[in-house]
Amino acid sequence: MTANAPKAEIRLEGIGVSPGIAWGTAEILGKALEEPEQTSILRSEVDAEKARLSLALVATRDQIVDLQRQIASDESEDHASIFDAHLLLLEDSAVLNEVLRICETELVAIECAYYSVVKRYIDSLRKISDPYLRERAVDIEDVAGRVLKNLEGTEPSVGSETHEADTTVILAHDLTPSDTASLDRSKVKGFATEVGSATSHTAIMARSLSIPAVVALHQIPFESLSAGNVLIDGYNGVVIIDPSPDTLVEYEALVEREKGILSDLESFKDKPTLTSDGNKITLSANIEFIDELGAVAEKNAEGVGLYRTEFFYLSEETLRNEANQAENYRTVAEATSPHGVIIRTLDIGGDKLYPELRSNPEPNPFLGWRGIRLSLDRADEFRIQLRGILRASAHGKVRVMFPFICSLEEIQAAKEQMEISKQELRDAGVAFDEEIEIGAMIEIPSAVLVADHIAKEVDFFSIGTNDLIQYTTAVDRINDRVADLYQPMHPAVISMIRETVEAAHRNNIWCGVCGEAASDLTMTPVWVGLGVDELSVGSAQLLKTRKAISLLSTEECTALMETLRTAGTEDTVKGLCREFAETAYPELLY
Length: 590
Ligand code: PEP
Ligand code: MG
Known about the structure:
By secondary structure, the chain is α/β, with parallel strands linked by helices. It has 23 helices and 16 strands. It has 2 domains: about 240 residues, Enzyme I, Chain A, domain 2; about 325 residues, Phosphoenolpyruvate-binding domains (TIM Barrel), CATH 3.20.20.60. The strands form 2 sheets. Strands 1-8-7-3-4-5-6-2 form an 8-stranded mixed β-sheet, with helices on one face. Helix 3 packs across helix 4. About 45% of the residues are buried. The protein binds phosphoenolpyruvate and magnesium ion. Phosphoenolpyruvate binds next to strand 10 and helix 18.
């Protein structure tokens, strides 16, 4: 790497959604949707305009199908299936009828009518607070951009022909899923966008294609990019424009270290997850979409320890359908055989809003109608999901887990719905696993305090540290202003976790951890020291976690947990854990 610009570097901070370092000449991609020039037409031209739209729709359909075929043969069927949704959007009759009406009544060129209709849809979707639905605006923008370019008579272009430098990093306001899928990976080494979230299809693809990516930068100073050198740090969510020679040296060292770590980690793909003294910990993966199953298998995860079903569930109304759900869950069960999958029932609420809550918001959504509360209040809908899960259990190892449990009564009520669902399937003669295991997520302090009672009702616990931290310390997990108070190693959080694991073991059930803290390598000694049975982590963290565990001795970690009993501040806990981890695997921490 060489720095050819004497300018002061500019550092931007966002969210790293795909790990890795990329460095290259910046390529700026415009917005997918550009407003066409306002053009009036004569009444006699309306039919010709309608015909132009039909041709553009056919051309767009052909391009999407081609792209879909190319992705299916290059990569995975799952990525290709994203374009099924694009094809549906293309044919949406509500949109098309409105476009024709505007063209006919306002006598404007068909592209102007098309633009005004889709722009209105996109703007209203962007205002929705639900991150998943907000992301759907990107899909509509993608399809509409193609239609408009075809109306102009130009091919939509993202990919090899636009990237002349050897190594290119893409900077954009946003990238659509099809932009991401069609990037020329021999040249494009990373990307960064002003908007986006970790739940977008774009972020998912970046992770599974191993392209370092940072999103949510809010504002990229596109005007300062004349020198064109940009570094993307997908580990820390940082983008550096015109990095200084010192920064480059620092990152060169990081890249070299990472190369060494990754090649060393390869050997951990086929190893069992064992501590240095031979204690077994089950290491499974968290997924939100079935697209992620390839990476899970590649790293040899022991199944899926947390399948968050709400993104799949929220994606389309029609998915509130038992057969569709059963098929989706069956796909995961079969792909994770023989280990299986833990399917978490719907955890809508908080920052993932149930449709009804969008028009009638609650004052404190994270303390409101969320998770199991909502499912129990919508028992008919809850049982559709339970029957879907049960049906899938006939085809592989499936466990079910209830989120946001705060009392013994709630787990009992959830189990009652499970029993009714089983009976409904028996009556209908549908096969399922009669012995299906049931778990409770422990993520609310009240559940920790009655954990002995809850443990007697279930087969396992899974600790949701993301919420347990939030509710133990009264710190909103999505509020930037109090982010420094969100402390995974607060002694009170450690006590909550300790209590939960001990209650599980006292009652002869196993206990896992599926929150983000499960993959925090400075906390691995805590999990080993407490005798946690399972860790479920993002697939990118699987091999590092497996290696970290292999370098820890149970006896030493148990002693560390004894020392931590007297720690009164997070700084003390963090300091001791960090020191411990640094002694065991300095190469994995930076
Ligand atoms: C958690 O709370 O730690 C968890 C795994 O669930 P979610 O992040 O989906 O709330
Ligand atoms: Mg949670």
